[in-house]
Amino acid sequence: MHRAMTGLACLATIFLATASANAQSTVKIGVIMSYSGQFADTGTQISNGMKLYMKEHGDTVAGKKVELMPKDNGGIAPDVAKRLAQEAIVRDKVDMIVGFDLTPNALAAADVSAQAKKFMVNMNAATSIITTKSPYMVRTSFTVPQVNESLGTWAYKSGARKAYTLVSDFSPGHDGEQAFQRAFKEAGGEIIGSARYPVANLDFTAFLQRAKDMSPDVIYIWVPGGPQPAAIGKAVAERGIDLNKTKVVGQGELTFDEALKGMGDAGLGFITAFHYDHNHQSAKNKKFVADYNAEFKRNPDMFSVGGYDGMHVIYEALKKTKGDTDGDALIAAAKGMAWESPRGPMSIDPETRDVVQNIYIRRVEKVGGQLLNVEFDKLDNVKDPFKARMPKQ
Amino acid sequence: MSPVLETRGLDKSFGSLAVARNIGIALPRGVRYALIGPNGAGKTTLINLMTGMLHPDGGQIMLDGEDITALGPEERVRRGLVRTFQINSLFPHLNPLEAVTLTICERERIARTWWRPTSDYRAAIDEAYGILDSLMLGPVCTRETRELPYGQQRLLEIALALATRPKVLLLDEPAAGVPREESSELFTAITSLSQDITVLFIEHDMELVFRLASRIIVMVGGGILLEGTPEEISADPRVREVYLGGAHG
Amino acid sequence: MMTSLLGVLFDGFAYGMLLFLLSVGLSVTLGMMNFVNLAHCTFGMIGGYATVTLMNAWGWPFLATLPVAFIAAAMISVVFERTMFRRLYRASDLDQCLLTIGLVFVSVATAAFIYGTIQQPVQLPGYLRGSVHIGGVTLGVYRVFLIVFALAVSGLLVAALEFTRFGAQVRAAVDNQRMARGLGINVDGAFAITFALGSGLAGLGGALAIDIVGLDPSFALAYLVYVLIVVACGGLGSIGGTFAAAVLLGISDMAGKYYFPAIGSFMIYFVMISLLMWRPSGIFGRR
Amino acid sequence: MTPTDPATAAPAPTAPHPHMAAQVRWRTVEYVFWLATLLPFVVAPDYLALASQIAITALFALSLDLILGYAGIVSLGHAAFFGFGAYAAGLVSKWGWGEPLSGLLIAGLAAGLLGYLMSFVIARFRHLALIMITLGFGLLLLEAANSASGLTGGADGLQGVKMWPVLGLFKFDLYGFTAYWYALIVLFVFFLMARRLINSPFGLSLRGIRENPVRMRAIGAESGPHIRKIYTIAAFMAGVAGAVLTQTTETVSLGVLDFQRSADILVILILGGAGRLYGGLIGAIIYMIARDWFSGVNPQYWYFPIGVLLIAVVLFLPNGMLGGIAQLIDTVRGRRWFGWLTSPPPWLRSGSKP
Question: Which whole number is the average pLDDT over D293-303?
């Protein structure tokens, strides 16, 4: 994998030198996300997803060779993201910018996309407003309200009346908290308490003890991934929270694979809402998971599928435009595009250019000795509810 | 004539160890005093107390009749009570000219200026060079301090002190570590200082002490044993006893 | 109210123990040789990866991996010490910072290359999971284990320093290096051993930390700040001080999160700043 | 700062005035350096965005050099002022005043004020306590900015920063043309100021504090006011650097206050050589270009070569790039022509050892 990256990068450099000669026959894609630092694994998985798609579908589309130019954003750094986007367009003459693991970075690059009229694919960053910042942007991941409002609605429907929320103290966490609380209250539930934990927090015992002391029907937890979900799972077990009486629910990151491995049986019964899991039952996904494992020796996750579907949008749009990389042409081609993804049916909302997809409700169960997220309910074709509420321009 | 520097009943102890006991001395203007005593007698501690580097547990320090006990070291220096260090305490990467100019700028309170280059202050540089030249440091004044031979560094210690325009100069073993033939030169420089300056120096070489000091203070075990002219001191049996029976020869 | 207080104290204490194991080596080596080793947490990371590798690749039981985590970290640290660090004992501390931060960068990249950027899972044996209830207080079994283990290790450490000849040499070297050299103590040798010991303890801390805080290549950088905070608050070269500071910071961090969740993240910095303003050389610092 | 060879200087009657004046004089190397900063416009017009961020980093490093290299105050929280300036500039623009130059001034003043307040604490501490207190304040400010998401936008970053054209004429363009010359001019202006400052009596006193704070007291100098003053000035400069970043990228996020940024700038300064005025500039150029290059070649593992670079510099070029290279040149030529570059080698043994 490493060698492939290096090789790719070297190739990229060589191509750069001969760029003018080949300009007509290649589509250059600037991939901007964190390959190093705290969020390195996000970048790795997105990039794996993209590479798998290219392996399956060839690196040529509409008669043009597709060439990725990866650029390391190194964490939360919109200034760097903006510079990388500028450089990609000005120096490397890329035809589109894609990737974007983090909201601030995506927002900063969106300015460049709008200014330079370049097609942009947001493959991960999930804050709702991002797609409004550039008319040339589509998103292939999900939005925080899309998942969490679905979860809030579902939680009330399943019988919970009193909820406690615990979220990471930064904007995506606040957004998740707001979305869940809004939907839960609109349905008729009551929020009996809430707390925000520090972003770098790694020991959750104190917070969960506090939540337990208030005896809610449901504890909503928002974590951004990393080592925190496992820590939460362990703390829930340690505090002796009875999952039959108190549901522990959250966005999909709470029960990621690594998290489940780390928390072990403590995670049994956690309920999460999400748009993708490698355990999603469909032929398309089975093949995707198998290929992914063959290629990268691990399971795909939501980052991978964001990258995979992102490449799909790029390939299909290029096919429609017959290789024309003009921003206006590409975005027109992408609007309204619908297809069968490993995550299930999905489409690009022609109005908002945002993702429309099913949101699955899953419970952690033991299947064949392995902890898996098992889907047991779903909400079909969910649009980003935040944008639905926004006044039409 | 009233003393320029006077201490009254200075006490200081670290835990149960009394390092200064009821010290009362009075130095008249222009006199060259030697402070002697065996190792551990509290000589350096006394200098630290007088210059404010240590706070006394009790007693008073008067400079020109004013009580300076509560003042910090910087303020005492500004009022003319200045010391040098037994172990060189210089500015290794400044050259002597810069170091002395720095001292003069601080004294003249122009060290706050950050818009004019130092080279504009010709008077300060001239004065600095004058002081260095008087201590035979003129030819080396643009070499970094750390590159100077040890003897010249000792002289620079004194040059820095002089640049503050002291009334009282407390020299803590100014010739420590300097070969004997050079230390004589060094002390000649000290004795030829302006007669307005009162000098108190710590020194172990008794020959130098008796040759150069006009009065001598003997300290033992944190207290003053006696004070007098060289003749009185050399005649006193207690001093002989301290030095013959003590650690130091 | 009382039980929640007890629970918070207990959890904070356990967290403090973790901080103590990670930090104590740095405190002693910094106090002894004035060597600013920002790569200290790298050794914690090495210990962590040693445990993960043994458990996941070779199926070793968790407890059996702990000595290996200690030894792996200690041995690698000796290699670093002999080949690089010792050249810089007399260099400025800025150069020491630069060298060791360079090492951190290299180690982060190496870990990412070998193990990937993924969060390393570790599955504890059953007897260390779950919780026990004592007088209405819920105590995590792993935390009880952590506390007992760390207390035993610190007991051993203190005993070794107080009652052995080697310990006396180390104490002398921390107190006054020049004097110790004058007395014919092989300060460099004593330092090398202390350094290995301290790094080994960090390795142990890293291995024990996986279950509570996880392990990925950014560990070497992420925990640096906390370790520095503990070392500064404890006072250089003071084992007792490091212990006290680790416990104080662990408990205040936990209590802050429980009682004032809104300002929970400020707590640890706030405590550190107030403590250092009150005692700039740390709780038991001498200088 | 000895421009003349001592061997040749000694026999001639030493002239104190020319010696002092020579320190202020511009050297050929300096003219060359500043002319070279114009090269990107001609040679690498595609790299202007990177060049502008290098200039900003250089200004930030220069501000740290004033307190670390000249006054001996080691700070692990210098990003606090950079970030404060960055947010101040962003907020001024967001609230409807997008004029860059006045925005720069406002941001600088805001950061300077914060620096002035903090300097009262800073001046009382040294060594490890000082380092950790600066680090603590930096992280507190980061947490505060995160909590005050109503004001700062939290982790999403501040939205709605729109700059007007510089002097009403030059828009910040996609190519980074305006951004680079704007950042370069700001850097140059503050460099001139810093250069002036270190050659003044005040600069001399700062070096005295760095070399020997105990002796400063014994010559009747109070270090406190000096430290407060330089800390305020450095905070002002760091704030301006942050503001330039905000203005040229029209974004601000919590990253500007990160511990990582404080640590990076320290690494950059040491890499270039602290206490040398050009150290921070050279460090910024080398580090940023190396980083851009390494991460371009391999976005995942570029930490490795960067780490190797740092280790190599310490082992083979002690005193940073500038110091090490100057020493090498001198060794090769057997003369000390570049003595003025090397002048403060490892002073920290006696100075700010924790």
Answer: 87
